[in-house]
Amino acid sequence: MADTERLSRRTLVEKAVEVADSESLDAVTVRRLAQELGVTPMALYWHVKNKDQLLACLSDHLLAEVTPEFEPGAPWNLRLRAMVEALVGVMRRHRFMPGLFALVKEEEVPSFTRATEVVLDLLSLAGFTLAEGWAVSHYLLKGAIALVDGEPGCPRTLTPAQAAEWRRQKRLALERLPADEFPRMVEFAKLMENETDVEAYYTFGLDLLMSGVETMAARKSQGDAPDDPRS
């Protein structure tokens, strides 16, 4: 970009997303972005004052992509699930996001603050206190991150032939376990022959996350309140 007048914070953040997606979050530096945009590093400091602000802007930009879809008047649990599903979807598109969240202060990311407010409101409709809702929102965020971080299957960089060999080696490792001591693990080895159904993995994981929240909400509606998470 020879014309520095076209440089904006949005342009800067979009380039940061591009670099992080194609390489890694570690590759996102002021010097690297300046090189990619054809400007001097000092030109970027008109838009972000330091690396921390850059990462906060990057988080805000990505969280703005979280656009849950649900029917008007949908109950609180369906709206909440739609939000978690949308967040997981964005993290699946941008695999560096879990690491990014660990580096930013949530209160410095406007999109995160707005999303948290919506979640707290939904959880209040479910009967949770504000303290409980805050804890639940935290658990859901960490659970969504863990789902994406823990996606099963072989490394994405492998070719189909390499992936098949990777699964074969995993199967053989399990089959070598003593069957009398680890019968379930040895039996599970047979499943390693097949590719992982990733969509089923995410559906099952979201069901687990949401069923816990829904069960607690049902208990509260029956007068069996959980312990205050602050105690």
TrEMBL record:
The keyword Transmembrane does not apply. Pfam families: TetR_C_1, TetR_N. This is TetR family transcriptional regulator. It comes from the Bacteria. The lineage of its organism: Bacteria, Bacillati, Actinomycetota, Actinomycetes, Streptosporangiales. InterPro entries: Homeodomain-like_sf, HTH-type_TetR-like_transc_reg, HTH_TetR, Repressor_TetR_C, Tet_transcr_reg_TetR, Tet_transcr_reg_TetR-rel_C_sf. Keywords: DNA-binding, Repressor, Transcription, Transcription regulation. GO terms for molecular function: DNA-binding transcription factor activity; transcription cis-regulatory region binding.
